[in-house]
Write a structure and sequence with these properties.
With 145 residues, the chain is an alpha+beta fold. The protein has 4 helices and 8 strands. It has a 4-stranded mixed beta sheet, with helices on both faces. Strands 5-3-7-8 form a 4-stranded antiparallel beta sheet, with no helix packed on it. Strand 7 and strand 8 form a beta hairpin. Helix 3 crosses helix 4.
């Protein structure tokens, strides 16, 4: 099962983890990304292109399911304004064995940073700026080619 949701509402980790479990699976690997308050960030606002963002995330999930024979892949991603400590993304992969679940989870996190159309704006006090892509994100995504 593939599940992709882009939402403004907070992410319920316990409910999403429970929903990711499958009866024939032996492992569920998860990742939760939090908004960091690095360098005085007081707000992170994410924008997306509705429809295109969900399709890009679904494509990544299908790639992971096919590559690791997963029982399921989930990506829940928030948009809108968030503050440090808020959950911004939840990824879960379900597989018969832990290695496949762990690898697929890492793949999805690395690839969604560069393969999904999100735009980030950080606010520090009264100043706001758009966040540029990071070379480290490209290198992490490239390791899966």
């Amino acid at each position: 099962m593939i599940r992709v949701v882009v939402q403004e509402a907070p992410i319920d980790i316990a409910a999403e983890h429970a929903a990711a479990e499958a009866p024939d699976a032996g492992a569920v690997a998860t990742f939760t990304g939090l908004v960091r308050g690095d360098d005085g960030v007081t707000e992170l606002a994410l924008e997306h292109y509705p429809g295109a963002t969900e399709r890009a995330l679904e494509t990544l999930c299908h790639e992971a399911v096919d590559r690791w024979s997963l029982a399921g892949a989930t990506i829940i991603h928030r948009v809108g304004p968030m503050v440090p400590g808020d959950r911004v993304v939840f990824v879960a992969t379900t597989a018969r064995h832990r290695g496949a679940a762990l690898d697929a989870c890492a793949f999805l996190i690395d690839r969604l940073k560069t393969g999904a159309p999100f735009w980030k704006r950080e606010r520090r006090g009264g100043d706001a700026r758009w966040v540029e892509a990071r070379a480290g994100d490209d290198a992490a995504a490239a390791r899966w080619n």
